[in-house]
Amino acid sequence: MCHCLLILKPTFSLRFQNIIQNPVCIFIRRWHKEPIPVTWEKPDIGWTKLNFDGSCKGRKWKASIGGVVRNHKAEFLLGYAESIGHANSTIAEITALRRGLELVLENGWNDVWLEGDAKTLVDIISRRRQVRCMEVQRHLSHVNSIIPEFNNCIVTHVYREGNRAADKFAQMGHQLKKPTIWRLIPPEEVLSIVDEDAQGKIVLRRR
Fold first, then answer.
1. So where does this one cross the membrane (predicted)?
2. Domain at 54, CATH number
């Protein structure tokens, strides 16, 4: 019986092993990857931080936006959310950023940290990359016209686990009939997240 096993063709044996073992190996590699600890970080003294997010749902791309502004003590200054009709994720993200920037400018905050979980958009803003979509370009031009109005402005990417408050506002936007702004006191739906962020809660990101 053992001898019969030994005369199997190598090509067949390797193919059989690949079919059986590869999915298992992939699963094991993924299982053993260490989760990434993610926290929301406070801005420096004198700075305000805007976290923004966009949300799209369903086949018709029903979109909404949201964002939150906090100070160096992690105190809630302002939150916003609204439904924007039909749009893809990129349009939703940059619309969320644009609206947040307008509110920051209106309130006279001059040293601003912008943070979102859409890495492609963050790269477009920070590296001044060109885009082909005319609608995105229109929003981008407006964003680029606002940024120089601040004394200092930085933009960074964060994993979604560090952008939970903005994500919650964006989700709330789907249910709103008109644009809504909250000042100084966050809505109940976001209160626990804001408190956890202020306390430096670590959220593990599974790869």
1. none
2. 3.30.420.10
Residue 7 structure tokens:
């005369």
Task: With a cut of 60, say whether residue 107 has pLDDT above it.
Answer: yes
For residue 104, is it within any domain? yes
Structure pTM?
0.83
Mapping DSSP to helix (H, G, I), strand (E, B) and coil, where does residue 53 land? strand
Structure tokens at 77: 């200054």
**Quick one: CA torsion of 41, 202, 160, 67, rounded to 10 degrees?**
-50
Angle among Cα 64, 69, 75 to the nearest 5 degrees reads: 135
Task: Of 106, 116, 118, give the one whose Cα is nearest residue 165.
Answer: 116
The sheet that has 111-116: what strands, in order across it? 152-157, 111-116, 48-57, 62-70, 76-86, 180-183
Name residue 164's amino acid.
Answer: R
The answer to the question of residue 163 being in a domain is yes
CB 78 within 8 A of CB 183: yes
Instruction: Tell which residue, 149, 169, 40, 144, has the closest CA to residue 94.
Output: 144
Beta pairing class for 111-116 and 76-86: unpaired
For residue 15, tell me if it sits in a domain. no
Domain count, the chain: 1
**Choice among 61-65, 123-127, 167-171 with the minimum mean pLDDT:** 123-127
**Is 69 inside a domain boundary?**
yes
Residue 111 CB neighbour total at 10 angstroms: 17
Residue 147, domain extent: 48-205
